[in-house]
Amino acid sequence: ARRELSALLKRAPRVAHRRAGADIIDVDVAEVVLGDILVIKPGEVVPADGIVSSASAVLDQSALTGESKPVQLDAGTPVWSGGTNAGGPFELRVTASAAESTYAGIIRLVKAAEESKAPFVRLADRYALGFLGLTLALSAIAWFAAGSPIRALAVLVVATPCPLILAAPAAIIAGVSRAAKHGIIVKGGGPLETLARVKVLLLDKTGTVTSARPQVVAVETFGRMSSDDLVRHAASVEQVSVHPFAPAILAEARSRSVELSFPVDVREQTGTGIAGTVDGRRVAVGQLPYAAPNTPRTPELRSIEMRTAVEGSSSVFVSVDGLLEGVLLLQDPIRPEAPRALRSLRAAGVRRIHMVTGDHPDVAELVGDALGVDRVFAERTPEEKVEVIKVVRAEGVTAMVGDGINDAPALALADIGVAMGARGATAASEAADIVLTADRLEGLLLATRIAQRTRRIALESVFVGMGLSLVAMVFAAAGYITPVAGAVLQEGIDVLVILNALRALGGGGLVAPKRAEAKGLAQGLTSAHRSLRPHVGELAALAARLDSLAPRDARVQLEEVREMLEKELLPHEREEQETAYPLLGKMLKEEDPTGPLIQTHHEIHRLTRLFGRLVAQLPPEGPRAEDLRDLRRALYGLHAILMLHFAQEEELYSLFEA
């Protein structure tokens, strides 16, 4: 356990900034006592549990709780050690020394979990004593039956232990080597053998089944500004922001190909919002009380509140010259390959899949439903995750997959700990038995298949070798094989089983053959989806604001949507059907999914034609009241089917990049 403990300790702060009157004194964290006032600088790890003494603080607690969003804490709010200051400096009144704080407790949990974890039982160990006893008994019987020690010697000579001491380990090490070629680091043969027998899988949420990188999922405007203009103004200000949502807003601007302006006179209130002047207009971006403090609670705002509560998304409001213009909704998206990987793991023999997270129950349940897990354990601290491991181990051999510091104790205690290592915490990687160097759950699926095939080959080598040895021992006991002939026969059996064990180095059909065009095609299609997604989101936004638009403005925007559908969307769908779908069919021979996707294309084409006809029949002055119902139905229908269709395709396209 020394390696994971050293990784945890390396992250732990060594120095605390104690405030004494007007002075700030750097002291060793061991000298921090109850009642001290500490100054936590931006980017620093909180060294001890305490209470916020400043007006507010913004903390990234994902390493402790798994919640991906930064948390704003007001004065008097308790703070756990181990979180990272994601805002400006703040003061903390210490309520527990560093040795008694939350972070130190996690370190103790990892140590206790490692010490209580049962040792790996190696495959060869299960059969060695039985084989030894059988060999000695048979040689003794041969000696006493024939009255000659030569027969006993012949039995002992042909009783080769190589299937156990050479062939089985050779197969296991070959499997470890095979896994390493695919970016899967297995820390020894024992974990590989145990992974082959896993029946229960526990998953962390943030960074494991989700990407841990917020993404703009919707742009809602309130009628006076287009969604592109709203994103342009927000992204222009966010260019100089340090908030974790800034990269997502800038990525949305890039996907819409909008031209940004550099802001001037910028003021950022950490954790609350940022304001600046863009092209002569004052733009504020952030929480509603910051962006537009005097805005009444309208039905549109209530709808946004309801949506964020149900979906677990975050809202970023945008005002221009003091008027609320719209809101950006951000979410931590589920990894595209995750649902398919979990279904394949079930097919590979995993009976139960649970999700355990420190996140809010509503958010966790939403993600769990999308993934099809059996049970969701939400709002679990590191200590409670360890208790969950202890409970579910009764269901079978258990694997835990995680990436954060808060997962390290559970990773250390589970029968198999699997860390997402590309961006995960070092502590998680050190505490785990297996590390996936690529942050893709398909790596876990491949590791499981390699482990199962390796174990099957190892068992074949053991049983075939022992079986041949037993037959030879019987013949030797009967006097048909001399010691010299037995020695030659033993060597032949050894060579046979070792050669069989080395088959674990081969492919075995576990990985689909790579096609040169697949990766480039996947990148092109994903890029096309990224550029089309804002337009798809605009379908629902336009449907929601049709009532508030002037008829002529409504007609202009409806014409723009029709042009986008006919000149951008439909050509993209045709290209997919002609290029990507045939390749998918070749890769997934037994389970070709392209039939339902093609049917979805037909429905998209039908709705597009219907919408085009509705727009073409509008009078020059714009839609009448009786036209709005059918237009809204067509827009909402297109939005729903396209969002679902894009999600299905991106899950399948992830195979191209695997």
Question: Please, could you describe this protein's structure?
Answer:
This protein is α+β, with helices and mostly antiparallel strands and 658 residues long. The protein has 22 helices and 22 strands. The two termini are 32 Å apart. The chain has five domains: 2-116, Calcium-transporting ATPase, cytoplasmic transduction domain A (Distorted Sandwich); 123-171 and 449-505; 197-211 and 335-437, HAD superfamily/HAD-like (Rossmann fold); 221-329, 3-Layer(aba) Sandwich (Calcium-transporting ATPase, cytoplasmic domain N); 516-657, Four Helix Bundle (Hemerythrin (Met), subunit A), CATH 1.20.120. Helix 5 runs parallel beside helix 18, helix 7 packs across helix 17 and helix 19 packs antiparallel against helix 22.
Give me some keywords for this one.
658 residues; alpha+beta; Calcium-transporting ATPase, cytoplasmic transduction domain A; Rossmann fold; 5 domains; seven-stranded mixed sheet; 22 helices; flat
Topology:
Elements: H1 2-11, E1 15-20, E2 23-28, E3 37-40, E4 50-52, E5 56-60, H2 62-65, E6 71-74, E7 78-79, E8 84-85, E9 90-94, H3 102-116, H4 123-146, H5 149-158, H6 162-181, E10 184-186, H7 189-195, E11 200-203, E12 215-221, H8 227-238, H9 246-256, E13 264-269, E14 273-278, E15 281-286, H10 288-291, H11 299-311, E16 314-320, E17 323-331, H12 338-347, E18 352-356, H13 361-371, E19 375-377, H14 382-392, E20 398-402, H15 408-413, E21 416-420, H16 426-431, E22 434-436, H17 442-477, H18 483-501, H19 516-545, H20 551-587, H21 594-616, H22 625-657
Parallel strand pairs: 11-18, 11-20, 18-19, 20-21, 21-22
Antiparallel strand pairs: 1-2, 3-9, 4-7, 4-9, 5-6, 5-8, 10-22, 12-17, 13-14, 14-15, 15-16, 16-17
